[in-house]
Write a structure and sequence with these properties.
The chain is mainly alpha-helical. The protein is about 60% helix and about 5% strand. The protein has 18 helices and 6 strands. The two termini are about 50 Å apart.
């Protein structure tokens, strides 16, 4: 097959070079965006009188027929045509003849691929936002069931202070909300229409670039033709948002793995979310959260791959930029799959709340409340901290919990103790934290209402 760009060449391209150079094996995923962009370009060329109106319509009709055939599985792409752009143009030539050659007027593959990638990333941002909202919804629904169930809160993976299970779950709602906001912000910088920039210097034809932007739903048109064809920072930003989202999913997955262990026993994964062992009959393995955790490294790799491709590129377009697509495709696929699995995992997990509460017994996680009691009695906090620290050491040495201490024992450490009521229950410790964003029930209800409002805003 002769190349559509082969006019200045006297020798056929090596088959090895064809295989090495071709991207159709992966950029075929852009076919829908490539056709949509070409339809908009042809329509504009006809409206501007750059090509005859009847030719523009012939091209549009031919592209729509190709689109229908691809959807029906009737098209096999050709590696000799290198990429999706040349494959579509080749198919158009076969279908409508020489008129197809007018489609590429005032256009380069450089601005064409920049357009396709931007359109793909826009679509993926919307899909990921919907998937994030689904995870948030599942977290809110689960949290609402566990407003009054208390678990140990951790720092350094050590018992720190008691908190409602709902408070712990809702922490991830706000993490994922920031992820949604990052993707939304990335969308603004992705939503810039580059077509009309040509190979790198624009075009001498009287195009209406804003008309193409209107047809394709872009809010802006690129300002600089060199930047338009060479910029992939929007893609790197997209991958960065994917990486941060993956990190948040991995943190939750790690907690599910730990909580699912026999040592913790805080959760029971649904049978549909676990697998067994080929050797050990008793095993129920948390494969789903483990894979979510592992695939985070894959998304990190996608980000680093693209950043490394971009770091030394002189302006403007270089073939290196062909390597932008596979990381983008892989990260989008991975994040969407993991978000779907995470939502299923959360919604199907049984939380063993009695085991959670039992683990609080004798763990000294209400030590801050004991110190706060002394502070309210006029003891400076640092002194109260030191007194309670000595009480903890005494309890450990004597095998006691706070609630086992008599008033006489408490008074050994400070005369400010007036009753054993100074030792707060975990329920009282949770209720005592009544500032905005804390664990008291009214504050939890406020937080739930705010989270539900986010989801309702997504639905509207």
């Amino acid at each position: 097959m002769s190349k559509l760009w082969g006019g200045r060449f006297s020798k056929a391209t090596s088959e090895d070079v064809d295989r090495f150079n071709a991207s159709i094996g992966f950029d075929c995923r852009l076919w829908e965006f490539d056709i949509e962009g070409s339809i908009a370009h042809a329509t504009m060329l006809g409206e501007c009188g750059v090509i005859p109106t009847e030719d523009a319509q012939t091209i549009v009709n031919g592209l729509k027929e190709i689109e229908a055939d691809i959807r029906a599985g009737k098209v096999e792409f050709d590696i000799a045509a290198e990429d999706i752009h040349m494959n579509i143009e080749k198919l158009l030539h076969e279908r409508i003849g020489p008129v197809a050659g007018r489609l590429h007027t005032a256009r380069s593959r450089n601005d064409q691929v920049a357009l396709d990638v931007r359109m793909y990333v826009r679509a993926q941002i919307k899909s990921i936002d919907q998937a994030l909202e689904s995870v948030q919804r599942t977290l809110v629904e689960t949290a609402e069931k566990h407003l009054d169930d208390i678990i140990p809160g951790y720092t350094h993976l050590q018992h720190a202070q008691p908190v409602p299970l709902a408070h712990h779950l809702l922490a991830y709602v706000w993490m994922f909300q920031r992820d949604r906001e990052r993707f939304e912000d990335c969308y603004k910088r992705t939503d810039v229409m580059p077509l009309g920039s040509g190979a790198m210097a624009g075009t001498s034809f009287p195009l209406n670039r804003h008309r193409v932007a209107e047809l394709l739903g872009f809010s802006k048109v690129s300002e600089n033709s060199m930047d338009a064809v060479s910029a992939r920072d929007f893609a790197a930003e997209f991958l960065s948002a994917c990486a941060i989202t993956s990190m948040h999913m991995s943190r939750f997955a790690e907690e599910m793995i730990i909580w699912n262990s026999r040592e913790f026993g805080f959760v029971e994964l649904d049978d549909s979310m676990a697998t067994g062992s080929s050797l050990m009959p008793q095993k129920k393995n948390p494969d789903v959260p483990e894979l979510i955790r592992a695939k985070t490294g894959r998304v990190y790799g996608d980000l680093m791959s693209l950043l490394t491709v971009l770091k030394g590129l002189p302006l403007t377009y270089n073939k290196d930029l062909q390597e932008d697509k596979e990381p983008i495709f892989d990260a989008a696929d991975t994040v969407l799959m993991c978000l779907k699995m995470l939502s299923l995992l959360i919604g199907s997990t049984t939380f063993n709340t009695e085991r959670m509460k039992a683990s609080l017994k004798g763990d000294f996680s209400n030590a801050v409340d004991l110190a706060d009691y002394l502070v309210r009695r006029g003891v400076p906090f640092r002194s109260a901290h030191e007194i309670v620290g000595r009480i903890v050491a005494y309890c450990i040495e004597n095998g006691k919990a706070f609630e086992d201490l008599s008033l006489g024992e408490l008074k050994r450490f400070s005369e400010e103790f007036e009753s054993t009521d100074a030792v707060s229950s975990v329920e009282n410790a949770v209720s005592a934290r009544n500032v905005y964003g804390s664990t008291a029930r009214d504050r939890m209800l406020e937080q739930l209402a705010a989270a539900k409002k986010l989801i309702r805003a997504s639905d509207s």
